[in-house]
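hey can u run this one w/ adenosine monophosphate bound, need the C-alpha cells asap thx
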Amino acid sequence: MSFSSLALSSKILSAIAKKGYKEPSPIQAQAIPAVLSGKDVMAAAQTGTGKTAGFTLPILELLLKGQKAKPNHARVLVLTPTRELAAQVGESVATYGAELPLTSAIVFGGVKINPQMMRLRKGVDILVATPGRLMDLYNQNAVKFSQIEVLVLDEADRMLDMGFIRDIKKIIALLPKQRQNLLFSATFSPDIRALAKGLVHSPVEISINPETTTAETVQQTIIPTDKKKKSKLVSHLIKENNWQQVLIFTRTKHGANKLTKDLESQGIHAAAIHGNKSQGARTKALANFKTGEVRVLVATDIAARGLDIDQLPQVVNFELPNVPEDYVHRIGRTGRAGAKGHAVSLVCSDEINELQDIEHVIQQHLERKIEAGFEPFNALPDSRAIKPLKSGRPQKIKKKKVEHKDGQRSGDNAKGHKPKSKNPRHTDTNKLGNSSAKSGRRKPNPAANSNKKKQSQSADPYSATR
Ligand code: AMP
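ok here u go:
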C-alpha cells in the first residue's frame, strides 16, 4: 500500500515524502481511513508503531475543511500524559502540516503560563496539551472548548497510570457533544475500556502490535549479576562494546541520579531525565543526547515515555520494571521503524519475580548471558515454564506505584521546580505553513526569533535530528 492511496492532499503527501516514509505502517493503513471517515477510533498501539502520524495526517486533512479557529479556541485537542510526548506530537503536527495553512500550539506545565495564554489568543487549529496545564489555562479563560471538532487521547493507559483520570473526565465534560474521538492506548485494560465507554461511540477498533509482543528487530538479553555490581557492569559494557548512544532505565529518580554520577566518575558523559528535573534540564539532557554530546541518558519510566529518538541502538534495563508491560515500552525505544536494536537487562536474584512476569507477558524466555568478571554471587534462579496468556478476558494490569506526575500542573513552579530557561517551542503557536521546505521542518516563528539569544542555553531537542 502507498500513502497516495489514502486520500490525503498532495501537500501532506509531500511532507510525508520529505520524511522519507515509503509506505504507511500497519496502524497508519488502518487508522488513516477510519479517521478520515469521521468515525470514532479506539486503537491499541504502542509508541514506535507510527501511531502519531496515524492520527495526525488524517486530522490535518480534515482540518483543511471547515471554519478557522476563533480567538482562544482550538479545533482539535490532543491530550498526552507527559511534556515530552506533547512536545513530540506537536513537532510531528508541525512537520506533517508544514505546507498547510494551519496553526498549532503545545502547552504543558513546568514553564510559564503567560506566553501560552498569549499564543492561544488568536486561536489554533491543533492544541497539544498535558491535562493539568490545560485545565489551568481553561480556568483562566485562556482556552475555550466550544469549537473542538476532534479529541485525541494519546497513550491513554499512561494517563490513567499517572492519575489524570479526574482531569480527563473534567475536560471531556466541557467539550461539545458533537465531536470525533480518537483513543490511543498501549493496552485495552478494563480501566481503559471503562473510560472508552463514556467517550467513543461505535468506534472502529484497531489493534496493532499488542502489548505482549516485542519488536522482532530488538535483540533481547539478560545478564544475571548482583545488585551491587550493576553500576560497574554498565560502564564496563559501554566501554567494552563501545556503545555511543545508550538509554538506561532505572526504577527510581534517586537511582537515576546515582547511576548518572557513577557513570560520570567513570569518564562516561551521562545525564538523567526524571520528574524531579526542571523542564529546562530535561529538555537540555534530551537535546544533548540526541546530538551525541551526552553518551548515556538515564531515565525513569514515566520521563522516558514517548521519547522518540530515531534509530536508538541500545537500551539497558538497570533494573527490571515493576510492571511487566513497561518492559515492552522500554525496549520499544530501540529497534524502531524497522531498525535493528539491542536491549540488555541487568538482573539480580531479587528480581526473579519481575523477570518471570515479563517472560509471561512476552511469552518467551529471555536469553541469559554471564559477563565474565560480573558473575552473580547470589545465583539468579531458573525461570519457570511459561504458561499461555489467558485469552478472552483482558489481562489485569498490576497497579503501578506512581512516582510523580510528569505532565504536571503549573503548581510545579511553586514547588520549586522553576525552569531555568525558556523554550518557546513548547508554548508557541506554530504556523505550520512556515516550515522550511528543505528540511521538512518549520522555521521558528518571529516571536521565537526575538527571544533567540535568551533561549540559546535551552537547546531544542525536538529539532535535533540524527
Ligand atoms: P510513533 O509511533 O508515532 O512514535 O512513531 C515512531 C517512529 O516511526 C517515528 O520516528 C516516526 O518518524 C517513524 N515513522 C512513522 N511513520 C512511519 C512510516 N510510515 N515509515 C517509516 N517511519 C515512520
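The chain has two domains: 3-207, 218-368. anyway lmk if its weird
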